[in-house]
Specification:
The structure holds 2 protein chains of 2 kinds. By secondary structure, chain A is an all-alpha fold. Chain A has one domain: MetI-like (MetI-like fold, Orthogonal Bundle), CATH 1.10.3720.10. Chain A is built from 8 helices and no strands. In chain A, α6 packs antiparallel against α8. The longest helix of chain A has 34 residues. Chain A is flat, with a radius of gyration of 21 Å. Chain B is mainly α. Chain B has a single domain, classed as MetI-like (MetI-like fold), CATH 1.10.3720. Chain B starts with a helix and ends with a helix. Chain B contains 11 helices and no strands. Classes of the chains: A mainly alpha, B mainly alpha. Chains A and B meet through α2, α3, α6, α7 and α8 of A and α2, α3, α9, α10 and α11 of B.
């Protein structure tokens, strides 16, 4: 257990910080995913054919290609694209995009595709009568969405969003290939310098299990809280 | 774009090989663990639950690293006959993927077993069909039919999972795309072409499963 002590001799504090980094990236990715989902869910549900196609393309493509591909595309392509845009504005220096931002964005795009499907399913399962009733009462469209549809949609999507969260949490391990020091990268470094990969990857596995277990407990509590009265 | 196509296609062949072999072993593992999960003995039951909990709760990358880097650390394994298998990244990848997909498959099959109507089993019992034949001729076929849609999703998830093999030096589709990117400094061409090939494979798998569902699908 000496390997896991805090301070200069052990890897305990490094792994602790790495765990916090994993949590931070996951939360950032989930939040970015929500933004994508809130943009693309209306497109998928829209009656307009071309908007529909855009929404379907996003979810189909992202869910059909490997996560690693999205990460590499953003990581290698993002730098080039940013430098190209900067060169138009007359800046020719080297730009390096922060690994945290690229990683959170890449995982966010992926989790957004799953969240879109979840939201779509939730809205479709809301009783049609609710829409009609609010229309009859003369409630405006955007108030209808914010006050009536959105709260119900969020409540209905909690169980499925918990799955999306688990997927997102596990996907963040892939960002380690870009050099962001989260659990996986830190274990890789520790395993390399102590020559004990078995131990450190087991620790990484336990850390991930702890994170998934704890978040499960938390989400269950949320679910009970928000389904009060139903 | 055309010049990088042959190398990407050769990578796609490796990807498909990895997919087919891990789905094959994964199905066997999944079936065994699904049967263990519905066993009434609490120890066997808990063991199977622990297996699926571990492999579904940790990232595939951790599992891959544990097997590729971790197992080589054990002296006993290094001196044994298993070393022939474990020293090859290709086999390590297949072991990791099979164990991973096995865990998910066991959950899919378990829920299919549990949703089989009690009436079928009772009817078989009252007709004097033995337990063994009830399992092989009634429970198993129904479970397989019912789990087809979920299993199709699992195949596609595993196809995406095989891309991780590229981080342990296997030149699958992802590995080839990375090589093209490094050699040509054209990330968009390399990764987007690879993405199109992945989408194409996904599309084919999706349609095969749809066809099978239509043909053998279970209507209740």
């Amino acid at each position: 257990m000496g390997l896991l002590s805090f301070g200069d001799t052990g890897w305990g504090d490094e792994l602790f910080l790495a765990t916090l980094m994993t949590i931070a990236v996951s939360i950032a990715a989930m939040a970015i995913g929500f933004i994508f989902a809130l943009i693309f869910t209306p497109l998928k549900l829209s009656k307009n054919k071309s908007l529909n196609v855009i929404g379907n393309c996003y979810t189909t493509i992202i869910r059909g290609v490997p996560e690693l591909l999205v990460i590499y595309l953003l990581f290698f392509g993002g730098t080039g694209a940013a430098m190209y845009v900067a060169s138009i504005f007359g800046y020719d220096g080297y730009i390096e995009i922060n690994a945290f931002i690229t990683g959170a964005l890449a995982i966010g795009i992926i989790s957004g595709a799953y969240s879109t499907e979840v939201f779509r399913g939730a809205i479709l399962s809301i009783d049609k009568g609710q829409f009609e009733a609010s229309k009859v009462l003369g409630i405006k469209k955007n108030i209808q969405f914010y006050k009536i549809i959105l709260p119900q949609m969020l409540r209905l999507s909690i169980p499925n969003l918990s799955n999306v969260w688990q997927i997102t949490l596990k996907d963040t391990s892939l960002i380690s290939v870009t050099g962001l020091v989260e659990i996986m990268r830190q274990s890789y470094i520790a395993a390399g310098s102590t020559r004990d990969p078995l131990f450190f990857y087991s620790v990484a596995a336990v850390l991930y299990l702890m994170l998934t277990f704890l978040s499960m407990k938390l989400i269950n509590k949320l679910e009970i809280k928000y389904s009060k009265g139903y | 774009m055309i010049s990088i196509f042959p190398s990407l296609l050769s990578g796609a062949v490796i990807t498909l090989q990895l997919l087919v072999s891990s789905m094959f072993f994964g199905l066997i593992i999944g079936l065994i663990f699904a049967i263990l999960r519905i066993n009434k003995n609490p120890i066997i039951n808990k063991f199977a639950y622990g297996y699926s909990y571990f492999f579904r709760g940790t990232p595939l990358l951790v599992q891959l690293y544990l097997i590729y880097y971790g197992l080589a650390n054990i002296e006993l394994l290094r001196n044994s006959f298993f070393w022939v298998i474990i020293k090859e990244p290709y086999w390590c990848a297949i072991i990791a993927f099979s164990l991973n997909t096995g865990a998910y498959t066991s959950e899919i099959l378990r829920s299919a077993f549990q949703t089989i109507k009690k009436g079928y089993i009772e009817a078989a019992q009252s007709l004097g069909v033995t337990k063994k034949i009830t399992f092989y001729r009634i429970q198993l076929p129904i479970a397989i039919k019912q789990s087809l849609p979920a299993y199709g999703n699992e195949i596609i998830l595993m196809l995406k999972g095989t891309s991780l093999a590229s981080v342990i030096t296997i030149m699958d589709l992802m590995g080839e795309a990375r090589k093209v990117n490094v050699l040509t400094f054209k990330p968009f061409e390399a990764f987007i072409t690879a993405g199109i090939i992945y989408l194409f494979i996904t599309f084919i798998i999706h349609n095969i499963i749809k066809y099978l569902e239509k043909k053998y699908g279970f209507q209740t």
